[in-house]
């Protein structure tokens, strides 16, 4: 209350400030609390403002309620960021309106997470490329797209590569190296060589055995779609003469005739490159070929 000068009759008069001035003071107090992000206190302040300026109080209460919800949303975004969950982070970010005091900081958290994921997936792709594991990069693209978004997938694709074709070694007549595959190929043709160490006795081929003729008969069986018969002919040919090419044919026909035991037997006698090349036949036929 303010004391004014005496009236002409000599008495004092008490004056109450206009209601709008009081409303302005309360509104300033409410906005100061909002600036400090004290949303509960700011909302209580708006309740006091209600009796003086109902329209402004209603507007401020709606704003403070929304910002309180936005504050909780930022907490959920923070949790998602800790779990590297970009999809959930973006979904929560969409709940915060552009004019919110929390929009900027929330956007930065999501953008930083995306940047981290892009960098991480790019580094993984680069490591695979340097290790010549090019086939694994294709799988990484899908994972990067699901967890890191289009930018992460694009970063992985930048390192896409093609693995160099394997060099096929011919060990049928000479042990080029000491690898298991080379020894298998060499011993398939040179079973009696001491280096093979099989301990097996050399078997004398049957009388009147024509390896080439039996192989040709097997080829004719293939042309007629008689895969089991073709396998039988190739095995008879191998009893006459060990031939790496016929071994390949025997494996292929074992796959085509769904003969898993024979497929496993001949698979072990192929070189590593041949195994990789011809295994697809058994895979297509759904025949188990691995020893």
Summarize, please:
With 291 residues, the chain is mainly α. The protein contains twelve helices and two strands; from the N terminus they run E-E-H-H-H-H-H-H-H-H-H-H-H-H.
What does this structure look like?
- With 291 residues, this protein is mainly alpha-helical.
- 65% of the residues lie in helices and 1% in strands.
- It has 12 helices and 2 strands.
- The protein has helices at 19-35, 39-49, 54-82, 86-93, 103-130, 134-157, 180-189, 211-223, 227-240, 244-256, 260-267, 272-285, and strands spanning 2-3, 14-15.
- The chain has a two-stranded antiparallel ribbon with strand order 1-2.
- The chain is rod-shaped, with a radius of gyration of 41 Å.
- The protein starts with a strand and ends in a 6-residue tail after the last helix.
- Mean pLDDT is 84; it is low at 1-19 and 198-203.
Topology:
Elements lengths: L1 E2 L10 E2 L3 H17 L3 H11 L4 H29 L3 H8 L9 H28 L3 H24 L22 H10 L21 H13 L3 H14 L3 H13 L3 H8 L4 H14 L6
Antiparallel strand pairs: 1-2
Distance between the termini: 101 Å
Spatial strand sequence of the major β-sheet:
1-2
Structural class by helix and strand composition: mainly alpha
Global shape: rod-shaped
Strand content: under 5%
Number of E strands: 2
How big is the Rg?
Answer: 41 Å
Biggest β-sheet strands, sense, barrel: 2 strands, antiparallel
Number of H- or I-type helical stretches: 12
Q: Could you spell the SSE succession in H and E letters? A: EEHHHHHHHHHHHH
Helix content: 55-70%
Mean pLDDT across the residues is 84
Give start-end ranges of low-pLDDT stretches: 1-19, 198-203
